[in-house]
Amino acid sequence: MKTIIDYIITKQDLKLKIQDVIVYRGPNCGTDHRLLVAKILFPYMHTTTDKHKEKKENTEKMVVKKRKYNIESLQNESTKFLYQQRLTNKLNQNECTDTEEMYNYLEKCIYEAAKEALGEKGVNKGRKTMFWDAEIEKERQNKQLFLKWLSTKDNNDKVQYKRHRKK
C-alpha cells in the first residue's frame, strides 16, 4: 500500500507561487520518503528607497575575499617554523596607533605570511564537499542495486538490494 507522506508546505499569505512539484525516485535515504523539488515563482518588487541604497552600500563594503591556503603543510615542522618566522618579521615592522588600523595591519600580515610560507590552494570547482570520502563514494556506486531493482522488478534484485540496505 502506498501513501502520500512527503509534502511541500508554504504559508497562504506569502506571495510565492508554486508552479510545479516533482517527485524524484532516484535519491534514496533508506526510507520510503522521496525527494520533492518545487519550482517556486518569487515576485519581483522594485525598491528605490534610501534604506535599500544604504543596505547595498554597506554590504558592498563588507565583501570579504576568501583565501584558501595549504594548511595541511603546517604538519611539516620546517613549514611551520617558516610561517612563524615570516609572521614575526612582518608584525615587528610597524607600530599602529588606531585599533582599526592595527586590525587591518594584523590581518594583512597573517595573509601575507600564509601566502609566502604555505602557498595558496587552487580553486576546487568540483562538487565534492568536505564530508565526501571513499565510503560515501562506494555507497553511491552501490545505489545501482536499487536502480537495477526498480528497472527490472525482479525478486532476486530486490533481495540483493534489501541485503545491501541492511548493511
Task: Please provide a written account of the structure.
The protein is mainly alpha-helical and 167 residues long. The protein has three domains: 45 residues, no CATH class; 50 residues, no CATH class; 27 residues, no CATH class. 46% of the residues lie in helices and 9% in strands. It has six helices and two strands; from the N terminus they run ββαααααα. Strands 1-2 form a two-stranded antiparallel ribbon. Helix 2 runs antiparallel to helix 3. The longest helix is centred in the middle third of the chain and has 19 residues. It is flat and about 75 Å long. The chain starts with 16 loop residues before the first strand and ends with a helix.
Q: Which stretches of 5+ consecutive residues score pLDDT under 50?
A: none
Regarding quaternary structure, how should these chains be classified? Answer: single chain
Rg measurement, Å: 27 Å
Number of helices: 6
The helix/strand series, from N terminus to C terminus, equals EEHHHHHH
Number of domains: 3
Task: Name the strands of the widest sheet in spatial order.
Answer: 1-2
In angstroms, what separates the terminal alpha carbons?
25 Å
Largest sheet, in brief, is: 2 strands, antiparallel
Mean pLDDT: 76
Extended strand count: 2
Range of helix content: 40-55%
Q: Structural class, please?
A: mainly alpha
| Strand coverage percent | 5-15%
Q: Overall 3D geometry?
A: flat
